[in-house]
Each structure stands twice: as C-alpha cells, then as structure tokens.
TrEMBL record:
InterPro entries: Glyco_trans_19. It catalyses: a lipid X + a UDP-2-N,3-O-bis[(3R)-3-hydroxyacyl]-alpha-D-glucosamine = a lipid A disaccharide + UDP + H(+). The lineage of its organism: Bacteria, Pseudomonadati, Thermodesulfobacteriota, Desulfovibrionia, Desulfovibrionales. Keywords: Glycosyltransferase, Lipid A biosynthesis, Lipid biosynthesis, Lipid metabolism, Transferase. Its EC number is 2.4.1.182. This is Lipid-A-disaccharide synthase.
C-alpha cells in the first residue's frame, strides 16, 4: 500500500517546486497519494487540495496583519486535517512564517517532517534554527551557501541542487538572441507587490520612451494574476503587451533586459542569462524592521549566490519610476555592459548544482519512509 503525504506550499514559487517533487516521488513510488495545500501546478499532479496557495499570497510583517484572521483559520483547518488523516509524512516548501506552525502540528502528532527548500534563516531570525533542529526530520537545501550556516546548528541538511535547473529547458532557449529594444516587466506574484511596483514600472516606461520611442514593454503574467489586474495598474499610455507564464523562459531570454520584483524570478532570469534590475517596495514599518533584523548584504538570490552585486538592487525609495528609468537607460546606452553581464551569468549556472534536485529529494524521502 502506498504512502499518503501531506505537502504544503505557501506561495506560487513553492507550488512550482511542489509539483516537480510530487512528480519525482510518484515516479519512484507510484502508489503514493498527496493531499494538502498547493496551487495549479500541484493540483495538476494529483494533489487532493485541502487549501489553495492562491489564498495565502502575502509578504512582510504589516502586510500579513490584514490577513491574520484568514491565516489562523487556514492553520486551524490544517491542524484538524492532520489529526484526522494522520499522513505518513509532511513535506513543507519554503514559507517559514506559515509552515513552521504546520511543522509543530505534525511533530506533536509524531508525523515526520521534511523541509524542501530550507527556510532562509541565514537572512534573519537565526534563533529559529533551533526550532527546525527540533521539529524537522530532514532539511533539503537548494542554495549552496546555506549548508555551512545550518551545519553550525548540527542539523541534518542535504544540498540537492536548485530545482530551477530542471524547470528551465536549456536546449530550447540557449540559441535565442536578445531582441533590441525589448524590455521585460516582471512585477511579482503577490497582489501587494504588484500594486506597489506596477505603477512605478509604468512611470519608468513613460520616461524611457521619451528618450527612445523604439522601446517595447512586455509583461509576463505570474500564475493566478489576471491581465485585467495588471492593466489596471499600468498607469501610462505606453503600450504594454502581456504574456501568459507558460513559455516565460524563452521570452525572458529574448529580452534585452528585465525589470523585476525581488524573488525567485530574479534567479530564473539570471539562469536564463538576461540582465535584470531587481526592485522591491515594502511598507515603511516592514522595511524598517527588516533593516534591523536582516543579516545579508543583498536581497537578490543571484547576488547572494555569486557573492557580489551582479544585478543592481533598487529597494524602497530607489524602486521608483525615475530611478528605474535612469538605471535601465544607462544599461541600454551601454550595450557592452549588458554583454558583460550575460557572460558573467554563465558562471552562475555552474554554482547551482546539477539537474535532478527534485529526484534527489524524492529518493531520500522515500528511502526514509521505507525504513
């Protein structure tokens, strides 16, 4: 009889990785069944959906406050379902603020907990490493620099490589050349970040087209975000073409440059090989608290992996249309700079591990559960 696994993704990027992991586990142990919290990718792989990831798309201290009632309701439902279903294992994907509570529920029920895509505790709140050491059976890391951090807490951590290496189809994109004047816009996957950044990107576009009317602006939709939402926030007369997320890597590769919200997408753009301006805006309180607690020199994953600023980071006041336009035009007016960044990004691919991250994690999980 197959195992029943509860799998919990707290955001859209986690849904993508969760789908791949479910597929990998099913290929090793076809009788495995999955239930829990996920999005379209995990649902397409057979998830018995108790909760939808689309209903938990928040970020930041103050942003979370507005959804606290809903969050606690979801957590209570998960606790009840874990108690009722008693799955053979719980797999958590990133989203520590939410998933740590799920880890505690599972631990108290004696259910083994696997953390796929280890929480970024090295960035802040390092004291919570002790929580993981107690409540999590096994930790899977997808970022090479995390291993040393976790080892200091005597944790069982496996570096499995980055699952994005499997998601991106290199042979289908490597031949694609950037199209002159094509600018890609990636405003994020969370409603709050899109509301903050999209009008600034529109302002940047209006400034940039005054200098170069030939520029074209293209936006790639995140899963779960409608075209109407994006168009309503594009507050300028510059034409904007919106593309669905399906073939985003081919499209990103074909852009001269990208302007993106900080997050997994900036690692995707780096692996694809397209120069990217990283932007982010949080509420003033969230950002203030972040400056007190965050312990890393960069917010962008490509910069953290490379140990230097490969992509400029335009945060808070700098994530406004004027500054974004200035930085983008400086790149566009210096094609040699863009070519140098592309060359630099080739070395990043070698740092994120070989293909097969989901397969390696799946094998370790199934081996554990078969003991």
């Amino acid at each position: 009889m197959g195992k029943n696994i509860w799998i919990n993704a707290g955001e859209t990027s986690g849904d993508l990785h969760g789908g791949k992991l479910m597929e990998a586990i099913s290929s090793i142990a076809p009788a495995t069944t999955f239930c829990g919290m996920g999005g379209p990718e995990m649902r397409s792989k057979g998830l018995d959906t108790v909760l939808r990831v689309e209903d938990l798309s928040v970020m930041g201290f103050t942003e979370v406050l507005g959804k606290l009632f809903d969050i606690f309701k979801m957590l209570k439902q998960i606790k009840n379902e874990l108690t009722r279903r008693r799955p053979d294992a719980v797999i958590l994907i990133d989203a520590p603020e939410f998933n740590f509570r799920v880890a505690k529920y599972a631990y108290n029920l004696g259910i083994p907990v696997y953390y796929y895509i280890s929480p970024k505790l090295w960035a802040w709140r390092t004291g919570r490493a002790k929580f993981i050491a107690k409540h999590v059976t096994r930790l899977f890391s997808i970022l090479p620099f995390e291993v040393e951090f976790y080892k200091q807490f005597n944790m069982d951590i496996d570096y499995i490589g980055n699952p994005l290496v499997d998601v991106i189809n290199w042979p289908s994109i490597d031949h694609i050349q950037p199209q002159k004047n094509r600018i890609g816009i990636l405003p994020g996957s969370r409603k709050k970040e899109i509301e903050a950044l999209m009008p600034q990107f529109a302002l940047a576009a209006s400034i940039m087209t005054k200098t170069n009317p030939e520029l074209e602006f293209h936006c790639i939709q995140a899963p779960g975000i409608s075209q109407d939402q994006l168009r309503a926030l594009w507050t300028c007369s510059v034409p904007l073409k919106i593309h669905s997320p399906e073939n985003r890597y081919e499209f990103m590769r074909g852009c001269t440059m990208l302007i993106a919200a900080s997050g997994t997408v900036t690692l995707e753009s780096a692996l694809v090989g397209t120069p990217t301006l990283i932007t982010y805006q949080l509420s003033k309180l969230t950002f203030f608290l972040g400056t007190k607690f965050v312990k890393v020199p960069y917010v962008g994953l490509p910069n953290l992996i490379m140990g230097r600023e490969v992509f400029p980071e335009l945060l808070q006041e700098d994530a406004n249309g004027d500054v974004v336009a200035q930085r983008a035009l400086a790149w566009l007016n210096t094609p040699g700079k863009l070519a140098a960044i592309r060359k630099d990004l080739e070395t990043l691919r070698t740092k994120v591990g070989a293909p097969g991250a989901a397969n390696r994690a799946a094998k370790l999980i199934i081996e554990d559960l078969s003991k």
